Amino acid sequence: MVESRITLGSTVKNLKWNWKREPTKTDEVGKLFGLLEQIHDYGWAQRADSWKWVGGGPANFSVYAVKKLFIMAQNYSDFYKMRWNGWIPLKCNVLAWQAEIDRLPTRVELTKRGVILQDINYPLCGDSTESSAHLFTACIFALEVRDQVARWCRLPPLYAFDVRDLRTIAKVLKLRKHERRTVHSVNDFMVYLNC
Questions:
Q1: Are strands 13-15 and 6-8 parallel, antiparallel or unpaired?
Q2: What is the pTM for the complete model shown?
Q3: 134: how many CB neighbours lie within 10 A of its CB?
Q4: How far is CA 167 from CA 83, 91, 147, 195, in A?
């Protein structure tokens, strides 16, 4: 393959091109010259082409070795395991999960995806941009709803800085298991009601 395209003399490298068409456009010629600059000082050897597996493990290539290499390269530190709640409807669980991983179609997320909007501020309060964190934790209306529900449930005021804080607040409170699950359900349902 490469051997049939390059002939080496004592000081000269002859490249035999096999073009379907000659490079004529400026960018094509520029890429060709860039390639030639990269290979100019390469130390070519007079031998047959060969492939070498450098993926680690045994010297012979195997599908198992590639699979092992991929598994070692994966980073699971950012993965989040969602705790689903069977006491509330599935749509509430899904919405709470989407809010927690910041995948709701808020104005901020829509502009990230190229949707042109006149204003990205939250129209209900106008204090900040419309993001999941603002909708469920920072907006004055969300704070008031959460405060009223906490009072109704005879809980201390619930402070959260992010949706994940709001969803895990039941673990922090010193409650029995049944009460923690109730608080978790109420918080997830409040996320659903705020939309």
A1: antiparallel
A2: 0.53
A3: 19
A4: 9, 16, 15, 16
